[in-house]
Specification:
Layout lengths: L2 E5 L4 H5 L2 H10 L4 E6 L14 E5 L8 H13 L5 E4 L4 H12 L3 E4 L4 H8 L12 H11 L23 H4 L6 E6 L11 H12 L4 E5 L4 H13 L3 E3 L6 H8 L4 E5 L2 H8 L4 E4 L19 E2 L22 H4 L3 H12 L1
Parallel strand pairs: 1-2, 1-4, 2-3, 4-5, 6-7, 6-9, 7-8, 9-10, 10-11
């Protein structure tokens, strides 16, 4: 038996994308013990993984701040006597931790983020539009370099296919014959967010469909206010933002017929429970390797523009100053893709 430490902090989408790899890895190597090191609020993503996976949540910006904090974290981790260290993040903090492990004689490997290929894909002129390796493959390659290749066969975090409904039934009621559509209209950066007025038109058109329920996902006061206003305006819509924890949101997502999301964390959460996602892309592009696990490109909604993609993460200002990549996507085209995914 070996003990493996896998490290990935960062945003929810990046951490969620480790799950299919770690789940497959744990099933393929049941003799090994695996610890995942991440932010504390990511625990729900790993709660249903095989029994040889444990989770350690640490706040490196507060409880383990600075070099003193990292040294204390290293001592805690070193006491676990890991044999292998898999750095899925490759930032200053994780580089320091893996250096300490290297100096102690442990075998380490880290992710290749493919920066050169992504830079060529997103530069303003002479883009090289070729598919980059997915994050899933990049994570798996780290384990392969440690001598443990992974056959990725992940389907869902739930052994029975879907989660128990008790976690959310008081909010949603029984599903019955209704079709359930989740909508997560927000993202961290403007280059990823479908215009609010257009998204409301999507909800309005879906609201006119018979036997269809809409569940609105989001977080933070501003988002909750917008979603709550939509829920009051459109009878088939229910705002669940702020009412459920991540574990409960995952459970609800497993019962959706389709999820509608930006290139954001909710696309990846829905992917972990084997729910099809209609994803809307603006400044970013699936070619960068961030499409959700097992998601079909048929459900990708995007405008074909020569300036796309202009950013890997959607955090750069629009070079045209109009976000035409998002504004040119009609609500009708989004609704058509949603209905096509559930009929």
């Amino acid at each position: 038996m070996s003990k493996i430490l896998i490290i990935r902090f960062s945003a929810i989408g990046d951490v969620a994308m480790t799950v299919p790899v770690i789940h497959s890895f744990a099933n393929q190597y049941p003799q090994h013990q695996i610890m995942v090191l991440s932010r504390p609020n990511m625990a729900a993503l790993f709660a249903s993984l095989p029994s040889n996976v444990t989770f350690k949540g640490v706040d490196v910006k507060k409880d383990y701040k600075g070099f003193a904090g990292l040294n204390r974290l290293y001592r805690e981790l070193a006491s676990e006597k890991f044999d292998y260290i898999a750095d899925f993040h490759d930032v200053i903090r994780t580089k320091y931790l893996r250096l300490r492990f290297l100096l102690s004689g442990k075998k380490i490997a880290h992710i290749d983020k493919g920066r050169a290929g992504k830079k060529a894909l997103t530069r303003a002129k002479n883009k090289i539009k070729v598919q980059q390796a997915t994050s899933f493959q990049r994570y798996a390659d780290v384990l392969k370099r440690l001598g443990m290749p992974v056959q990725m066969d992940f389907q869902t975090i739930y052994p029975n296919g879907k989660a128990d409904t008790s976690a959310f039934l008081s909010i949603t009621g029984e599903k019955g014959t209704d079709r359930w559509v989740g909508i997560a209209p927000f993202a961290t950066h403007a280059g990823k967010i479908y215009p609010q007025a257009s998204m409301e038109q999507v909800i309005k058109q879906l609201d006119a469909q018979p036997n269809l329920r809409i569940f609105l996902f989001g977080g933070g006061k501003k988002e909750v206010d917008i979603l709550s206003a939509w829920a009051k305006k459109y009878p088939s819509a229910t705002c669940i933002a702020g009412q459920l924890k991540m574990k409960e949101e995952l459970a609800l997502m497993s019962h959706l017929d389709v999820m509608v999301s930006m290139d954001s964390g909710n696309m990846h959460l829905a992917s972990l429970v084997n729910t099809p996602v209609v994803s809307i892309w603006g400044a970013t592009h699936p070619l960068a390797g961030f499409l959700g696990w097992n998601q079909s490109e048929k459900n990708v909604v995007q405008a074909d523009m020569p300036c796309r993609p202009c950013s890997v993460y959607g955090n750069k200002p629009c070079m045209r100053n109009d976000y035409a990549c998002l504004n040119q996507i009609t609500p009708e085209s989004v609704v058509q893709r949603i209905l096509g995914a559930i009929i």
